[in-house]
Design brief:
335 residues, alpha+beta, CBS-domain, 3-stranded antiparallel beta sheet, 15 helices
C-alpha cells in the first residue's frame, strides 16, 4: 500500500497572500485542521495549521477560545479590544505558514509515511507529482489504510488513540516483513526477528558497499578495455624518423639537466607477449617479449645507439591490483 492508495485527492489549498482570517474560515467550513500553501506554479511551499493561526505561546493559547468564538459569532458582539488587536495583525498565509514543507511521492510506502509523521511530529503530508500537489495523506488516512490491511492491528490502535506513535514505530520496524510462506506439509516457517531502524541503516551501508564494489568493477573493466585499445594502437603504430629524432632530442636535454637516463616510451604491460612477466622478474630475454612500437624502439636502439655505448632498460612503473601495469623503456648513458 502506498500514498496513492491512501491520499485524499480533494485538496483544499490557499495562496501565499490569503489572509489568516480567511484561512481560519476555510478550516472551520471544511472541517479540517490545516491547508497547504500553493505558489503560482501549483507547488506546495508551506502548510498553515490551526496552531499556526492561533500561535503557540501561552498568551496565544489563552486567546484561542476568543479567536474561534469570534469566527463563529456571525456578527455577535465581542470585546472591542480583542477584535481590534485581531484585525490589526493583517497576517497572511506567507506570514504564518510552516516551512520547509515535508512532502512525499505517490509511490511512498506506508512505512515511509508513518516514519515521516512520527519523525517530524506532523499530522499530514502532501503528495506531489512533478512538483505539484495531487493529494494529502493525514494520520486518519494512514490509520484507515492500515486498518483495512491489518484489521486486528487497526482495531487495537483505534481503541487506544494515545498509542498511535508507538504503533507507528512498530509498523516501521516490521514494514518489510511479509507473512512467512508455508513450508512442507503446511508447516509455517519461523519468522525472522523484527527489523529495527538500525537494521535499515546497516542495510543502507551494505547497499552502499555493494554499489562501490560494482563501481570499482566497472572501472576495472573500463580500464581493461582502454588498455586493449592502447595496445592495439601501439601494435599498429610505427616509430618514424621524426619521432625517433624527437626522443633523442629529449634524451640530450635530460643529460644537460644532469640526468643519466630518459624514458623513451611508456606503454601497457599487455603490449608484451607475456604481459610484462619477464621484465618484472628481470629475465635476460625480456626484449623478446616486446611487440609493436616497443619492439621497434628496441631495434632502433640496437642498431643506432648500442654500438655507441648507450644501454636500454625496461622497468615496471606501477602495479594496479598487484599486477604489472605500465612499462617504461629507458635510454641509459650513466655509469
Amino acid at each position: 500500500m502506498n500514498a496513492r492508495d491512501l491520499m485524499t485527492t480533494a485538496v483544499v489549498s490557499v495562496s501565499p497572500e490569503t489572509p489568516a482570517r480567511e484561512i481560519a474560515h476555510i478550516l472551520l467550513e471544511k472541517g479540517i485542521s490545516a491547508v497547504p500553501v500553493i505558489d503560482a506554479t501549483g507547488a506546495p511551499i508551506g502548510m498553515v495549521s490551526e496552531g499556526d493561526l492561533i500561535g503557540r505561546s501561552d498568551a496565544d493559547r489563552e486567546a484561542r477560545r476568543d479567536w474561534w468564538l469570534e469566527l463563529l459569532a456571525e456578527g455577535e458582539n465581542l470585546s472591542p479590544e480583542f477584535l481590534g488587536q485581531l484585525r490589526a495583525q493583517n497576517r497572511i498565509a506567507r506570514d504564518v505558514m510552516a516551512t520547509p514543507i515535508v512532502s512525499i511521492g505517490e509511490e511512498a510506502e506506508v512505512s515511509e509515511i508513518a516514519r515521516l509523521l512520527a519523525t517530524h511530529r506532523i499530522k499530514r503530508v502532501p503528495v506531489v507529482r512533478d512538483g505539484h500537489i495531487v493529494g494529502i495523506v493525514s494520520r486518519a488516512d494512514l490509520l484507515r489504510g492500515l486498518a483495512a490491511s491489518r484489521p486486528a492491528a487497526g482495531a487495537a490502535t483505534a481503541s487506544t488513540g494515545a498509542g498511535f506513535f508507538a504503533w507507528i514505530d512498530r509498523q516501521y520496524r516490521n514494514h518489510r516483513h511479509a507473512e512467512p510462506a508455508p513450508g512442507p506439509a503446511g508447516v509455517r516457517a519461523v519468522p525472522d526477528e523484527p527489523r529495527t531502524p538500525a537494521d535499515d541503516f546497516r542495510a543502507l551501508v551494505r547497499d552502499h558497499e555493494r554499489g562501490e564494489a560494482q563501481h570499482r568493477e566497472e572501472e576495472r573493466r573500463a580500464a581493461v578495455l582502454r588498455r586493449q585499445h592502447e595496445v592495439k594502437e601501439l601494435i599498429d603504430h610505427h616509430v618514424g624518423d621524426a619521432m625517433w629524432r624527437g626522443m633523442l632530442h629529449n634524451a640530450r636535454l635530460a643529460a644537460e639537466r644532469g640526468q643519466t637516463e630518459s624514458m623513451l616510451l611508456r606503454f601497457p604491460s599487455q603490449l608484451c607477449s607475456d604481459h610484462g612477466r619477464a621484465i618484472n622478474t628481470d629475465e635476460p630475454n625480456w626484449p623478446a617479449t616486446l611487440r609493436g612500437e616497443a619492439a621497434e624502439l628496441y631495434l632502433r636502439w640496437e642498431h643506432d645507439l648500442k654500438p655507441n655505448g648507450f644501454h636500454l632498460a625496461a622497468r615496471i612503473l606501477d602495479y594496479p591490483g598487484g599486477m604489472p601495469g605500465d612499462v617504461g623503456l629507458f635510454l641509459v648513458w650513466g655509469e
